Recover the amino acids of this structure.
């Protein structure tokens, strides 16, 4: 593909080498890292105290209709958890910030690491400025649609305005969490390298090298948890002033669905744009040296796409993960609130505070998950620190088992303390209330909590190098790339069996306990220890960047080996994290579907007995819904390939323009002739933003068109078909890609079977082919499918009344 000079994108600063003042680097001048990370201190100093005052102010404000105060035990619990979460995140950040790059004994290496880190930081800023502008423009346009449609169909302008406010709150908070997380990751990756060098010189210990990325992950997990609680409960408390009576909580919870919609839109942008960027840059950097016939690797300093690869790791695995989990959590809580909106009029006790505590019970469950994650975090960093390479995996598993085990009795106590002895809810089908107690709610939450642990273990079995499936994939590389691909696909298909059965059991059991409300509680229980899960998922990309930086800087072989080991463990647990995310997205999507049907039933008595699944329109759109994830996957996969070709074209252009880039004499000097790293970042950013338009419109417009033109029955069929296909596709793609990636790592580290060692070029090349094919499956399409099924259901939920307003829910073409 010939390199073509393309005009500067309107959302991206122009690259002009003749006029330095117009160069995109001028937008991001190098500064001291100590000043760059002060945003956390400013956030803590200027944002948190006022927000907490807002919560307490609304909590203690007397109601105009009832003679009681909002201030109660639940408000104290939530406010305390917010303070604790931000304090712990800030404390972990301070511990990481105490590590200085200047502490390295080799001064030239120290300067080189700072230069690499600054270049990565500039690339991240280049991407974020373009992505947030595009996302902000879309949010502005979509907020007008939300306000206009909801206000017009409901006849209540205030309702539409409050829904729009919650939409903006969810979107803005989500973006701020993503920004904080990616800054923390970029700040920590080079410090992981410094710790590896220092401990290598002090006896080869592992504690510092492991604790640095893990503490950064804890800071990320707790800032996301605290930010979600802070923004969500602030909006909820503010809206309660308007909707103070329990009979009005229907409108309160419906207005809060805008929050879930805002988080979904942002996470959709992050997963699609970021996924295209990360794999386009990764594969492009890996192929650049091969296609251009230059003997350079993906981490070689002479590779123009090397920095884009590092930037992509932070964008796809940190920013994308933050926004994905933030969206899942917000959507899960919103779904439970909608399904439990009738809880206020169904509480046996006359105490209105008891009814409020019962309705926001899912927030209390998540608060206890944050506190339990904090308590258990010291196990890994202090009580049982990592001492050997093998203890890394043990440490992670101890963390997960400890949080899960401690959450069960804690959730029981919270359920008994905050829920009334008996309360009533409206079912999805029928008009008769059903009764619940604290124990049934506890069992539903525990079903999700235990299910999350089991999903992680099943994913580990299919993707970890320690178990048979990955070893068999590696063994298949002996006979070439074809058998490797065939065996990997087979593993991916087989890996859907047990997770699907687990999800089916969780849905059936929780539904049998508490109707669809129980499925929502199970999704919240699934995400209760989110801070711990995010810490583990953040650890992997940071170690991946650290290993690449150590290679690029040509540090001592022992240091590079240590960072490779850290990365090796990070890849394994990243695959587990992706399996965990699929499970959460599946439960949340089913809960959102239940919330949608609940809204439909309450707004129109025609659907009080549910949706007729024998209607031919339902079957028609069930098939169409099952097709949509395949169309979405095809679009995203094609976008990755197009981005790879553009990056390779840019690399070729740079080598042709400056042949001295390939000279061996320039390998060890970052100050001499060097590639234009940010040009590749610019190409990947521009291409990913262009390519994300079609798949994003598919997700957003499909439920709107179906609901408006074909009605509720057709939309329900399409949503169910989409959810079913997304679950199976996402599981098979993610696990197959994870198995291929870990089989390559296994071959690189193999010591027993001579035929499988990385020294055998044919075997290793076969593993590289599988890894390259699996990369976009596990890091782009699989995670994006999670957002697709959640996004389509939450859009349907928010616009449910709009659809019902068209021919009583039958649509424009309905009978």
């Amino acid at each position: 593909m010939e390199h073509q000079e393309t005009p500067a994108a309107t959302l991206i600063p122009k690259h002009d080498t003749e006029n330095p003042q117009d160069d995109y680097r001028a937008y991001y001048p190098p500064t001291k890292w100590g000043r760059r990370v002060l945003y956390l201190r400013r956030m803590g100093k200027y944002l948190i105290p006022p927000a907490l005052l807002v919560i307490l102010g609304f909590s203690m404000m007397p109601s105009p209709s009832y003679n009681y105060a909002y201030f109660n035990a639940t408000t104290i619990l939530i406010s305390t958890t917010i303070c604790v979460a931000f304090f712990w995140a800030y404390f972990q950040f301070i511990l990481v910030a105490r590590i200085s790059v200047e502490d390295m004994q080799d001064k030239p290496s120290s300067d080189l690491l700072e230069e690499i880190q600054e270049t990565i930081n500039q690339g991240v800023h280049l991407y974020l400025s373009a992505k947030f502008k595009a996302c902000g423009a879309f949010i502005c346009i979509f907020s007008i649609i939300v306000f206009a449609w909801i206000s017009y169909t409901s006849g209540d302008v205030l309702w539409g305005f409050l829904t729009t406010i919650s939409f903006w709150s969810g979107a803005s908070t989500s973006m701020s969490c993503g920004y904080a997380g990616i800054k923390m990751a970029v700040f920590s990756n080079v410090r992981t390298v410094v710790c590896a060098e220092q401990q290598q010189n002090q006896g080869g210990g592992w504690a510092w090298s492991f604790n640095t990325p893990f503490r950064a992950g804890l800071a990320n997990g707790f800032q996301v948890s605290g930010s979600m609680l802070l923004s969500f409960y602030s909006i909820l408390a503010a809206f309660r002033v308007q909707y103070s009576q329990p009979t009005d909580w229907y409108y309160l919870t419906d207005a809060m669905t805008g929050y879930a919609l805002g988080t979904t839109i942002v996470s959709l942008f992050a997963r699609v744009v970021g996924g295209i960027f990360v794999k386009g840059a990764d594969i492009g950097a890996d192929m650049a040296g091969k296609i251009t016939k230059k003997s350079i690797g993906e981490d070689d300093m002479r590779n123009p796409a090397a920095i884009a690869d590092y930037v992509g790791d932070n964008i796809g695995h940190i920013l994308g993960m933050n926004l994905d989990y933030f969206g899942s959590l917000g959507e899960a809580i919103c779904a439970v609130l909608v399904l439990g909106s009738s809880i206020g009029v169904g509480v046996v006790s006359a105490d209105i505070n008891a009814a409020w505590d019962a309705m926001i019970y899912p927030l209390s469950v998540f608060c206890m998950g944050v506190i339990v994650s904090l308590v258990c975090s010291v196990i890994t960093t202090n009580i049982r620190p990592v001492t050997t390479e093998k203890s890394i995996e043990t440490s992670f598993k101890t963390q997960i088992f400890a949080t899960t085990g401690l959450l069960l009795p804690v959730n029981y106590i919270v359920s008994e303390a905050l829920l009334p002895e008996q309360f009533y809810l409206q079912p999805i089908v029928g008009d008769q209330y059903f009764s619940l107690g604290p124990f049934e709610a506890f069992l539903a939450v525990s079903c999700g909590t235990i299910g999350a642990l089991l999903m992680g273990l099943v994913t580990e079995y299919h993707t970890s190098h320690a178990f048979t499936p990955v070893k068999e994939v590696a063994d298949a590389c002996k006979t070439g790339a074809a058998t490797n691909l065939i065996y990997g696909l087979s593993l991916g298909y087989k890996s859907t069996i047990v997770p699907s059965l687990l999800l089916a059991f969780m849905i059936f059991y929780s539904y049998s306990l508490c109707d669809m409300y129980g499925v929502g509680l199970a999704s919240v229980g699934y995400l209760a220890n989110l801070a711990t899960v995010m810490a583990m998922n953040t650890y992997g990309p940071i170690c991946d960047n650290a290993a690449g930086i150590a290679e690029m800087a040509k540090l001592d072989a022992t240091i590079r080996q240590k960072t490779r080991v850290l990365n090796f463990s990070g890849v394994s647990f990243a695959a587990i994290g992706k399996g965990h995310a699929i499970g959460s997205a599946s439960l949340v999507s089913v809960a959102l579907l239940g919330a949608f049907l609940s809204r439909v039933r309450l707004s129109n008595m025609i659907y009080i007995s549910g949706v007729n699944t024998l209607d031919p329109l339902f079957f028609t759109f069930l098939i169409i819904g099952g097709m949509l994830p395949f169309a979405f996957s095809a679009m995203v996969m094609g976008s990755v390939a197009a981005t790879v070709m553009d990056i390779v074209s840019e690399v070729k252009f740079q080598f042709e323009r400056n042949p001295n880039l390939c000279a061996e004499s320039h390998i060890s000097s970052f100050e001499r002739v060097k590639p234009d790293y940010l040009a590749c970042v610019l190409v990947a950013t521009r291409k990913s933003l262009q390519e994300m338009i079609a798949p994003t419109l598919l997700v957003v417009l499909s439920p709107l068109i179906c609901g408006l033109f074909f009605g509720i029955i057709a939309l329900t069929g399409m949503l169910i078909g989409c959810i079913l296909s997304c679950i199976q596709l996402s599981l098979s793609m993610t696990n197959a890609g994870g198995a291929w990636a870990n089989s390559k790592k296994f071959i690189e580290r193999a010591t027993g079977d001579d035929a499988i060692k990385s020294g055998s070029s044919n075997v290793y090349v076969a593993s590289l082919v599988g890894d390259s094919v699996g990369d976009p499956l596990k890091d782009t399409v699989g995670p994006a499918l999670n957002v697709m099924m959640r996004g389509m259901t939450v859009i349907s939920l928010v616009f449910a009344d709009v659809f019902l307003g068209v021919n009583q829910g039958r649509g424009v073409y309905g009978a």
